[in-house]
Amino acid sequence: MPARLTSFRRDDPQAGLLQFTVDDAGPLDGEVVVCLHGFPQDRGAYAQVTPLLVAAGRRVLVPDQRGYSPAARPAGRDAYVLPGLVDDVLALLDEVGAERAHVVGHDWGGAVAWSLATRAPHRLSGLTVLSTPHPAAMRGALVRGTQGIRSAYMGLFQLPRLPEALLLARDGAGLRTLLRRSGVPAEHAERYAAVLASPGALTAALNWYRAVPLTAAPRPAGAAPRPPRLVRVPVTYLHGRRDPFFSPAAVAATGRFVAAPFTTRALDTGHWIPEDAPAEVAAAVLGAP
Known about the structure:
Layout: E1 7-12, E2 16-25, E3 32-36, H1 50-55, E4 59-63, H2 82-96, E5 101-106, H3 108-119, E6 124-130, H4 135-141, H5 147-150, H6 153-157, H7 162-181, H8 186-196, H9 201-210, H10 212-215, E7 235-240, H11 248-253, E8 262-267, H12 273-276, H13 278-286
Parallel strand pairs: 3-4, 3-5, 5-6, 6-7, 7-8
Antiparallel strand pairs: 1-2, 2-4
Helix pairs in contact: 2-3, 7-8
């Protein structure tokens, strides 16, 4: 019988040896579900989701992603490009010997999940994406509607050192205020702020944003953009009606980029679906095709 996992290692060709903290719950021979958090969360975002999935016989793996695990916190934004983040998840599946898994992703974890579905669909039984529209839907919505305004904070996060100084000033008061105003439940906001106050943690988390310009492959001048690759695994997409970060246009367009069974459901929540609607998240995973 395989051992319960508490961490796993991955030797990344660019970033070096990384060791990820992971929660591993449920029967070791159960169908594998991997839950991916976003910014500024950690694996505790799924604390109320995991028991519901375990009760249904699933093996649930919830890692602290790159930059959030203290021993997987490489320096520099180059280490946080999306392909490397996807490879972290594939390394976790390899570690537990899972040929396929159902992947749940929220916020940045949703972006990793979408990318995983196009890069390695053979490793997925399905996706449950929380909040985050398909990236092509996001790009289209940036030039119309309110998405550009909703994403403006990402421009601030591109700056070196200034966001850290603002958010960590006065013992992290700025970060706690930001989290509470965005709707993070109070108990989670305090924990997330405390984790990101540890040395290098906030910079690593912001490096996910700072790596965005590095992720897209360069295109020759005047070349037509490549059409987006369609997702060909079943997707359930949950989004909050009061999410301040994603526009209705981006949400509505997401299904156009899924060439497989696609279910979407609007919840009476804001952005923080794993914390605010754990029963709905678990039901979406367990009801997936």
